[in-house]
Amino acid sequence: MSDALLTYDNLSVRLPERMDREYAIKDLSLSLNANEILCVVGESGSGKSLTALSTMGLLDRNALTPSGRIDFMGRNLLEIDEQERRALVGAKLSMIFQEPMASLNPFYRVGDQVAETFSVHTDLPKAEIREKVLALFDEVLLPNPERIYRSYPHELSGGQCQRVMIASALALDPAVLIADEPTTALDVTTQAQILKLMLALRENHNTGIMFITHDFGVVAEIADRVAVMQHGNLVEIGTAAEVLRNPQHPYTQRLLSAVPILEPRAARTDLGEQILKASGIRKTYNYKGARGSTVSLKAVDDVSITLRRGETLGLVGESGSGKSTLSQSIIRMVEPDAGEIVIDGIPLHTLRTRALRRARRHMQIIFQDPNTALDPRQKVGDAIAEGPIVHGVSKTEALKRAETLLESVGLDASASQRFPHQFSGGQRQRICIARALALEPALLIADESVSALDVSVQRQILDLLHEIQGRLNFGLLFVTHDLRVASRICDRIAVMQKGKLVEVGEPIDLFQSPREEYTRQLLSAVPGTAIGQLAMP
Amino acid sequence: MSPTFILTKILRMALTLLAVVTFTFIALRLSYDPAQAMLGPDATQREMEQFRAKWHLDKSLIQQYVIYVRNLATGDFGISFRDGRPALDVIFERVPHTLQLGFVAYVFAILIGVPAGILAALKRGSLFDRLIMVFSVVGFALPNFFFGILMILVFSMMLQWLPSAGSSSWQHFIMPAAALSLTLAGILARFTRSSMLETLSKQYMRTAEAKGVSKMRRTVAHALPNAAIPVVTILGLMLGQLVAGTVVVETVFAWPGVGRLLISSVSGKDLAVVQALVLFIAFAMVLANFIVDMSYRLLDPRSRSKS
C-alpha cells in the first residue's frame, strides 16, 4: 500500500528460555495507514501490547529481542540508534497507555509534563509552549485548561488524566498514535467520550491510530480495520464490517460470541426467602480540602436494598458512585455511619466484635483482582479450608470439602496442594469463588469479580456463578460497572449515582424503558450496541 | 503549609516530649534510690536524709514529679549529683563533639551511599551492582566497633598515621567518622537502590521514555524526586540517631561525646544527667521526625492535599 505509515514485516519477538512458548510475537506482518483507526484485538498474552512496545522501542531489551522490520518514515525502527529513536518517538510516533493516572509523574504539574514533550523536541520559548499546551487541553475538551495546567495528577480524575496523556501524545502532531487499552480503566461514559475524541483526531489530524483493545464493543464503535491476534499470531485481519459481521477464523468467532451484549431478561420467578434487608445505609468520608477546609463526601447516601435466596441483584454505576462502599458497608467491612442490616435473619448492625466475627460465615465476598486476593504463600487447599476451620469445622473435614469445592468450580482436586502463582487469572478467580463458597454463605458479594478477566474467561466465570447459584441457592450481590455483564445474569439491577440509588428494576424494564435520565446516559454509553445487529446476517 | 498544620505538629511534638518526661521520671525513680546510689553503702541515716531533703527526694512521688516538670519549664534540668554543675551544662559541653563527628559521618554516608544506590539500581544485575550490595551488607552487618578496632590496629598501631583516641585535631575525625559512615552508607545504599528500582519500574517512567526524554533526564528529573521520598525518611531517622551520639564508636575512639556521657552517667547513677540526656535525645528524634514530615510536604505533592 502506498499510503502506509507504519509497516510491520515479519516482526517476531523471542521469549526468554523456559517460558511456555518460544515466541511472544511470531511473523507479524501488518500495516497502518494514514487517517485510519486499526484496532488490534486479542486476549492477554496475545502479543498485542508487545507489538506496541516494540514499535516504540520500549521493550526490555535484556529479556526480549525483536527481529524482522518495523518501517516508519523510511527507517526500520528496530535498527535505528538511540538518538534517532528519541527524535522520532514522542514527536512523530506517540503512545498512550492503559492506566492514565499511573502514566503521569506524581511529582509534577500535568501542564509541565505536557510542556516537556515540546521542550524535549523543539526550541520553542517557554511562553509559547505554555500557549500550545493550553490549546491542546482545549482541543481534548478538558474543562478550564488554566486550572488543569496547574493541577497534579492526583487532583484529576482518570478520564482527565487520559485526556492529558492524549494532549501530550498529540503535542507535535504525530503521524502515528498507538493507544494501548486507553479506555479499559475508565467508566463507560468517560470511555465513550475518549472514543469520540479518537474519531475526531483521525478526522482533524489525519493521524493513523493503532488502537489496542480486548473489547469488541470498543472495536465496533471506532475501528476502520480490525486485526485479531492470538498467542502472538495474527489470525485475522479485515475491515471492521467484515470481521464483525463475518468472522473467518474460529478464534475470532469464539471471541465475538463471548462478547457480552445487552440481552436484558426478566427476573426469575422461583426465588426464595429474603436473606438481605439493608435500609438507610449511610457512609460519609471526610478529608482535608484546600487550605485546611474539610470536605465531606457522601459515598453512600440513605440507600436501601433487599435480596432473596437464589436472586442476583446487580449494583451498577460509574467509579465513585458508591457501589463498592455500599457493598462493603452491608457486610460491615466498611463501618456504615447509619443504617439497619439484616442478613439471614441476623441483625448485623447491632453486633459487636465477636458476634460479628461469628456471623461472617453467612456472608462472603469475591474481589476484583484474583492475583492479589490470594495469599501467595498459602496453598490453595488451605486458603479454602481456612474459613470453615475458623468457624469450627475439623481440619480433615475442611480440607476434604475444599477438594470437592475445587472440583465443583471446574478445577482438579489436586489443585489444593498447589500455590496461587501456579494458576492463570481465570483459575485463580475460580479458587476465590471456591473459597467464598466454603462457608456456604447466604449472601455472596462479587465486587467487579469478572472485570479483570478476558472476555472468554469472563463468560466462563459468569456461567459458573450462575450454575453454582442454582445448586447452592445463595443471594448474589453483583457489583459491576459493565451494564452488558449485568444484563446477562441479574434478576434486578440497582443503578447508583453519587452515593444515591437512582433506579431499581428488572433488566428487561430497566434497559428497554429506563425511567431516569442517568440510566439512559449509562445505556447510551455502552460500547458496541451495534454488534448484536452486526453479527446477524 | 498552613499555620494550623505546623501548629498541630508542634503541639504533638510537645505532647510526645511530655510523655517521655513522665515515663523516664517514673522509670528512673522506681528503679533505684538515688541517695543510696550516690552516698554508697557506708552512708549514715542522717547523711541519707540530708541528701534526700536537699534534692526533694523526701517528698511524695507526685510532688517530686510536679517540682521536676515545673523546673523543666523554667529551663532547670537539675544538678548533676557527681560534680554539682547543672545537668544541661554537662550535656551541652559534649554536644558539639557529637555533632561535629555526626555531621562529618552523615555527609560522607550521603555522598557515598546515595550515589552508590542510584548507580546500582541503574545497572541492576551487573557486577557493579553486586559489588555495591556486598559492601552494603558488610557495612551494616559488621559491628562498627570491630571496624573501629581494625582501623586502630592498622592506622594507629602498625602504620602510626592516625591518633587512636581523642578529638583535638582533624586527624582525630578520620577513623571514628569512617567507622560511623560505613554503617550508614551501607544502609543508605541499600535503601536508595530498592527505592530507585521501584520508581524505575513505574508506568510514568515508560511514559517519559515514550516522549523521547533522554535517559539522563529520565533519571534525574523523573526518577530521583520520586525515589527520594523513602530515602528521606531514613535520612531523618539517622539524623536523630547521630545527635544522640553513638555509644559504641565514641567509646572505641574515646570520643568525648553524648554517647559516652550517657554510659558514664548511667553507670555513675547520675539521675539528673540521665534524665536530661534522655529528654535531649528524645527531643532530637522528635525534631528529626518533624523535619522529615516537613520535607515530605515539600517533596510529595500528594501529601500536600491529603490529611
Automatic annotation (TrEMBL), chain A:
GO molecular function terms attached to this record: ATP binding; ATP hydrolysis activity
Pfam families xref list: ABC_tran (PF00005), oligo_HPY (PF08352)
Domain ABC transporter: from-to ranges: 6-256, 276-523
Keyword Cell membrane applies: yes
Keywords: ATP-binding, Cell membrane, Hydrolase, Membrane, Nucleotide-binding, Transport
EC number: 3.6.3.-
SUPFAM superfamilies given in the database record: P-loop containing nucleoside triphosphate hydrolases (SSF52540)
Coiled coil: none
Gene3D superfamilies for the chain: P-loop containing nucleotide triphosphate hydrolases
Stored InterPro entries: AAA+_ATPase (IPR003593), ABC_Ni/Peptide_Import (IPR050388), ABC_transporter-like_ATP-bd (IPR003439), ABC_transporter-like_CS (IPR017871), Oligopep_ABC_C (IPR013563), P-loop_NTPase (IPR027417)
Membrane-related topology note: Peripheral membrane protein
Primary location class: membrane
Location in or out of the cell: Cell inner membrane
Any single biological process term in GO: peptide transport
GO cellular component: plasma membrane
Annotated family: Belongs to the ABC transporter superfamily.
Protein's name in the database: Glutathione import ATP-binding protein GsiA
Organism for this UniProt entry: Flavimaricola marinus
From TrEMBL, chain B:
MF GO annotations: dipeptide transmembrane transporter activity
InterPro entries: BPD_transp_1_N, MetI-like, MetI-like_sf
SUPFAM superfamilies, sorted: MetI-like
Ranges for domain ABC transmembrane type-1: 95-292
Leader sequence residues: none
CDD domains registered for this protein in UniProt: TM_PBP2
Membrane-topology descriptor: Multi-pass membrane protein
Record's subcellular location: Cell membrane
Source species, domain of life: Bacteria
Record keyword Signal present: no
GO CC terms of this entry: plasma membrane
Keywords: Cell membrane, Membrane, Transmembrane, Transmembrane helix, Transport
Transmembrane segments: 12-32, 103-122, 134-161, 173-192, 227-253, 273-292
Family: Belongs to the binding-protein-dependent transport system permease family.
Protein name: Glutathione transport system permease protein GsiC
Source organism per UniProt: Flavimaricola marinus
